[in-house]
Amino acid sequence: MTKKIAIYPGSFDPITNGHIDLIKRASRLFDEVIIGITQNSKKTAFMSIDERISLSSEILKEIDNVKVLSFGTLLVDFAQAQNAQVILRGLRAVSDFEYEFQLSGMNKHLNANIETLFMTPAEQYANISSSLVREILSLGGDVSHFVPKAVETLLKTRL
Ligand code: ADP
Q1: How many angstroms does the Cα of residue 90 sit away from the middle of ligand 1?
Q2: How many domains does the chain have?
């Protein structure tokens, strides 16, 4: 039987408890979940790609069927190269919808064989975003409820 593989792409700058909640849920639905960290994000990267990979790998190492890779190609090409059938994206609020709808439409146009699936996090994670975590930290706020300890520690050394 074909392995069911999902790609969860994003900047993960940094990985948050919201991302992790989604990854844990997805790991129970798919044979393999590949975290695809984008190399060429429009956003200005806070952490280097290597830092994001090693931090995410360390945090997710206990989940056997999850692996972390980075990619600099079209997402659908990366998904195809990894034999993934599904692109996974998170929806936190209605405000995420418009962009995500557009993105999934473009990806379907580029490769109709790959489906985009949306998942929502547990309620307590719905307001977490990487950009807010960076902002709160830079202003000296407490982010311990939003990110794992390892992320908080590394980010603090960066400020
Ligand atoms: P991108 O730069 O591609 O938006 P992110 O790392 O910010 O990358 O997010 C990757 C994916 O995870 C996106 O689909 C985003 O909507 C989703 N996501 C981000 N934060 C959360 C959260 N707290 N709960 C659920 N999904 C989330």
Answers
A1: 5
A2: 1
Q: pTM to 2 decimals?
A: 0.94
- Residue 15 to residue 36: CA distance in whole angstroms: 12
* CA 127 to mean position of chain CA atoms: 15
CATH number at residue 121: 3.40.50.620
Whose C-alpha lies nearest to ligand 1, atom 9?
Answer: 10
Could you report the per-residue pLDDT of 6-43, keeping only the tens digit for each?
A: 999 999 999 999 999 999 999 999 999 999 999 876 66
Domain that holds residue 112: 5-157
Instruction: Say yes or no: CB of residue 121 within 6 Å of ligand 1.
Output: yes
Do residues 53 and 70 lie in contact, with contact meaning Cβ atoms separated by under 8 Å? yes
Report pLDDT digits (tens) over 137-159: 989 999 999 999 999 999 888 77
What is the 10 CA–ligand 1 centroid distance (Å)? Answer: 6
Q: What is the CA radius of gyration of the chain?
A: 15
Q: How far is the CA of 103 from the centre of ligand 1 (A)?
A: 13
Ligand 1: residue of 92, 120, 132 to mutate (most ligand atoms within 8 A of CB) is 92
